[in-house]
Specification:
416 residues, mainly alpha, Growth Hormone, Chain: A, globular
Length: 416
C-alpha cells in the first residue's frame, strides 16, 4: 500500500515538473517577442504600430482558443492537445522570418497564439489541480506558474544574445526548435485524473455546473481583475524594450530587465501560492494590484536610469505572475475542479483581451505621441480599479452549495 502511495505521489510530482517545463518553453518564447520588434521593423519596413497589432492579435487568438483547448483536454486528454499545439508553435516560429507583409505577419502570429494554448496556465494549472488536494492547489498553482518566468529568465538573455551574435532569423528558428522539444513532455499528461468524469457530464462531484459558474457574479469579478492583469503584463513584456529605448538607455538593459522580471516572477508566483494557503485569496489579489499601482507610480516619478529600470523590473516581477495562484485558487474554491481547465480557459481568454489591448495600445500611443506616458496612466488607473474590484468578491464556495461531497481524493492527497 505504501508503495502505491509513493508511486502516486511521484507520478503527481512528475506531472507538476512537466507542467513547469512546458510553461517555461511556451511563456518564455512568447515573452521575448518584444526583442524582435526592432529587427522586424528594420528588416520589413513595417512600423511599430503594425507589428504591435500583429503581436496583439496573437494575444487575442491565444485567449480565444483557451476555453476550447480546455474542452478538448477534458474530452481527449491533455497529452494529445499538447502534441498538436507544439507542432503548430514550431511551424509558426519558423515562418516569422518570412512574414514580410502586415497580413502575413498577423496570420503567422495568430497561429502562434492558438498553438500556445498547449502551454497556457489555464490548461496546465487546471489539469494539475485536478490531481492534488484542495490544500495543495494554491502552492502547486504557484509552482506551475513559476514556469513562465523561469522560461523568461533563461530565454530573454539567451534570445538577446542569439540576435546579437547570429541575427534575429536564427533566433526565430531556435524558438521553433525549442517548441518541438516540448512534445516529449506530453507523456506525463497521458493518464487521466482519478476524479475525472465523462466530458458530457455537466455537474461535477465536488463543483458547480458550467452554467452555474457562468451565471455567478464572482466568476466575472475574478475575470475582470485578470483582464487588467493581461493588459499590464503584455504591455510590459511587449513594450519594455521600447520604453528603455525612449529613455535613451542601451539595448543591453532590455535583455537584463526581462531576465530580472522572470527571476522575481518565480519568487512572486511561489510566494503567492504559499500565502493563499494561509490568508484570504481576494485580499491577496487586491494587495497585488495595489502593489502594481504603487510600482508604476514610483517608476513614472523616478529618473530613468539603468538602476531604476532594474528596480522596477524587480517590483513588477514580484507582483505580476503572483496574480495567477489566487485567481486559479478562487475559481477552484468557488466552482470545483472538474471543469477547471474550461473555466480557467474562459478567464485566460479575457486575460488575453487585456493582453491584446496592452500590446496594441502601447504601439498606438508611442506612434501618436512619441512616448508611452498615456499608456502608463491608463495602466495605473486600471491597477487601482482591479485592487478595488478584488475586495468585492465573495470567497464562499458555490460548489459546496450545489453538489454532494467529492469522491476520490487526488494522488498527492492520498500520498500525504
Amino acid at each position: 500500500m505504501q508503495t502505491t502511495h509513493t508511486s502516486a505521489r511521484a507520478s503527481a510530482w512528475l506531472l507538476v515538473a512537466a507542467a513547469v517545463l512546458l510553461l517555461a518553453i511556451t511563456m518564455g518564447s512568447r515573452t521575448v517577442f518584444g526583442l524582435f520588434i526592432s529587427p522586424l521593423n528594420s528588416a520589413t519596413g513595417l512600423d511599430v504600430a503594425t507589428i504591435s497589432f500583429a503581436v496583439a492579435v496573437s494575444q487575442l487568438t491565444w485567449g480565444a482558443a483557451q476555453p476550447f483547448a480546455g474542452m478538448l483536454a477534458e474530452r481527449y486528454g491533455a497529452a494529445r492537445v499538447i502534441v498538436v499545439g507544439s507542432l503548430l508553435a514550431a511551424a509558426a516560429a519558423a515562418l516569422v522570418p518570412f512574414a514580410d507583409s502586415a497580413a502575413l505577419l498577423v496570420a503567422v502570429l495568430a497561429v502562434s497564439g492558438i498553438a500556445a494554448t498547449v502551454g497556457s496556465p489555464s490548461l496546465l494549472v487546471g489539469t494539475v489541480s485536478q490531481r492534488v488536494s484542495a490544500q495543495q492547489r494554491g502552492l502547486v498553482a504557484g509552482i506551475v506558474g513559476a514556469g513562465g518566468p523561469l522560461g523568461q529568465l533563461v530565454l530573454a538573455p539567451a534570445t538577446a544574445a542569439v540576435i546579437s551574435l547570429a541575427g534575429w532569423t536564427t533566433a526565430a528558428f531556435a524558438l521553433a526548435g525549442l517548441a518541438l522539444m516540448s512534445i516529449p513532455l506530453a507523456l506525463a499528461f497521458r493518464r487521466r485524473p482519478a476524479t475525472a468524469a465523462p466530458a458530457a457530464q455537466t455537474a461535477t462531484p465536488g463543483g458547480a455546473t458550467l452554467r452555474e459558474a457562468l451565471a455567478s457574479r464572482g466568476f466575472w469579478l475574478v475575470n475582470a481583475t485578470f483582464f487588467v492583469c493581461g493588459l499590464h503584463v503584455f504591455f510590459l513584456v511587449t513594450h519594455l524594450p521600447g520604453v528603455i529605448e525612449v529613455c535613451g538607455l542601451p539595448p543591453s538593459v532590455s535583455g537584463a530587465a526581462l531576465a530580472v522580471l522572470g527571476l522575481f516572477n518565480i519568487a512572486g508566483s511561489i510566494g503567492a501560492g504559499w500565502v493563499i494557503q494561509r490568508y484570504s485569496m481576494k485580499w491577496t489579489l487586491s494587495w497585488l494590484f495595489a502593489a502594481r499601482a504603487a510600482g508604476i507610480a514610483l517608476f513614472l516619478a523616478a529618473p530613468k536610469t539603468e538602476l531604476t529600470v532594474l528596480a522596477f523590473a524587480v517590483w513588477m516581477g514580484l507582483t505580476y505572475m503572483a496574480v495567477l495562484p489566487p485567481t486559479a485558487g478562487l475559481i477552484g474554491k468557488l466552482y470545483g475542479t472538474q471543469r477547471l481547465p474550461t473555466l480557467l480557459g474562459i478567464t485566460f481568454m479575457l486575460h488575453q483581451v487585456g493582453a491584446f489591448l496592452g500590446s496594441w495600445l502601447g504601439g498606438v500611443f508611442v506612434e501618436a505621441t512619441g512616448s508611452y506616458d498615456g499608456m502608463w496612466a491608463l495602466d495605473l488607473g486600471l491597477a487601482v480599479a482591479a485592487a478595488a474590484l478584488a475586495l468585492t468578491i465573495r470567497e464562499g464556495a458555490v460548489a459546496a452549495k450545489t453538489a454532494p461531497a467529492a469522491a476520490a481524493r487526488p494522488a498527492l492527497a492520498r500520498a500525504t
